[in-house]
Amino acid sequence: MSKLSNKTIVIISFTLILIGLLLISSDYLKSKKEKAYEKVRISLMTDVDNTPKNIDEPVEEPEPEPLPNGYLGILEIEKINLAQGFYDKDNPDNNVSKNVTFLEPSNYPDEKNGNTILVAHSGTSNIAYFKHLYQLGIGDTAKITYKGKTYTYKINNIYNEEKDGDVTIYRDTNKNTLTMITCTKNDDTKQTIYIAYLENIE
């Protein structure tokens, strides 16, 4: 058997040393990696709130502040610069000759699939709170502040009816609705109905 040359011996030795270093460094890096992950897991565990909670304890919502002038709610329509309060159904000031009127068949804004119906005069008098309602179109919004929450509605339909003392309201009864009714601009024989559906509550 021929003897290995010095050059071959040096190459083999260098290769063995290199393999040994790679194995050692691999174990070291793996160990460091495992420790890093362990630290993350420990950190996440210590961040968890393990305080016992009584799930049966009811969460008390703060009582909303009363609205000014004893109003039940406030109607706001930014497009026409309207911000006007209205009273509850049994309030003597809930009258179309005095204020925006919360019509008797109405539901309150927080009633599921209810219809909040507001009526007011148009024209030029100081009680013509809906005098600019004719400027509204499909997609415009109106808001009602009620019991500390703001209900935002988007207009979906606008139509006219004869002014004969009755109004037929065409709406999706599976949606919370705001209906606004007033006299039709430049037509004393008709009234205009605005149907708006609830978009969100804040």
Descriptive terms for the model:
1 helix; Sortase, Chain: A; alpha+beta; single chain; eight-stranded mixed sheet; 202 residues; 28% strand; rod-shaped
Give a verbal description of the structure.
The chain is an alpha+beta fold and 202 residues long. It has a domain at 68-201: Sortase, Chain: A (Beta Barrel). The protein is 21% helix and 28% strand. It is built from 1 helix and 8 strands. It has one helix at 6-47; strands spanning 73-77, 82-86, 101-102, 115-119, 141-146, 149-162, 177-183, 190-201. Strand 7 (177-183) and strand 8 (190-201) form a beta hairpin. The model is unreliable at 34-53 (pLDDT under 50).
With strands numbered from the N-terminus, the spatial order across the biggest sheet is: 2-1-5-6-8-7-4-3
Number of strands: 8
Name the CATH homologous superfamily of the domain at 68-201: Sortase
**Biggest β-sheet: count, sense, barrel?**
8 strands, mixed
CATH structural class of the domain at 68-201: Mainly Beta
Structural class: alpha+beta
Roughly what percent helix? 10-25%
The CATH topology of the domain at 68-201 comes to: Sortase, Chain: A
Rounded to an integer in angstroms, the radius of gyration calculated over CA atoms is: 36 Å
Order of helical and strand elements: HEEEEEEEE
Separation, N- and C-terminal Cα atoms: 92 Å
Average pLDDT, all residues? 82
The number of helical runs is 1
Q: What is the 3D shape?
A: rod-shaped
Quaternary structure annotation: single chain
The percent range for strand residues is: 25-35%
CATH architecture label name of the domain at 68-201: Beta Barrel
